[in-house]
């Protein structure tokens, strides 16, 4: 049987999810921008450009997932730490 969560707990989780998603988008955009920056300086063929864009999108996706998981794990780790109430 799961314990009921207070409104404050639910609000804190909602804020944390929003924070995780927002910072995940920021990290992904930054990662994508860094990964495609060689396009500004190099004249690449159409195939190489496509491959670079695909690789950049993949790396940005991984960075997004990594950031979201990291933020949410840290949040649940803080909640279940020594100062948290037993559930």
Rg from alpha-carbon coordinates: 19 Å
Helix content: over 70%
Which structural class should the secondary elements be placed in?
mainly alpha
Task: Indicate the overall shape.
Answer: rod-shaped
Q: Give the termini separation.
A: 10 Å
Q: Give the biggest beta sheet.
A: none
Residue share in β-strands: under 5%
Low-pLDDT ranges:
none
- Count the helices. How many? 3
Report mean pLDDT, rounded to a whole number.
Answer: 88
Order of helices and strands: HHH
Total count of strands: 0
Jot down its keywords.
about 90 residues, rod-shaped, mainly alpha
Summarize the structure in words.
By secondary structure, this protein is mostly helical. It has three helices and no strands. The protein has helices at residues 7-36, 38-41, 46-79. Helix 1 (7-36) runs antiparallel to helix 3 (46-79). The longest helix has 34 residues, at 46-79.
Architecture blueprint of SSEs:
Blueprint: H1 7-36, H2 38-41, H3 46-79
Helix pairs in contact: 1-3
Summarize the structure.
The protein is built from 3 helices and no strands.
């Amino acid at each position: 049987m799961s314990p009921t969560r207070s409104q404050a707990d639910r609000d804190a989780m909602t804020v944390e999810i929003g924070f995780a998603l927002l910072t995940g988008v920021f990290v992904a955009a930054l990662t994508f921008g860094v990964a495609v920056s060689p396009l500004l300086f190099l004249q690449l063929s159409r195939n190489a450009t496509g491959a670079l864009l695909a690789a950049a999108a993949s790396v940005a996706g991984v960075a997004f997932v990594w950031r979201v998981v990291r933020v949410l794990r840290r949040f649940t780790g803080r909640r279940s730490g020594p100062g948290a109430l037993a559930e």
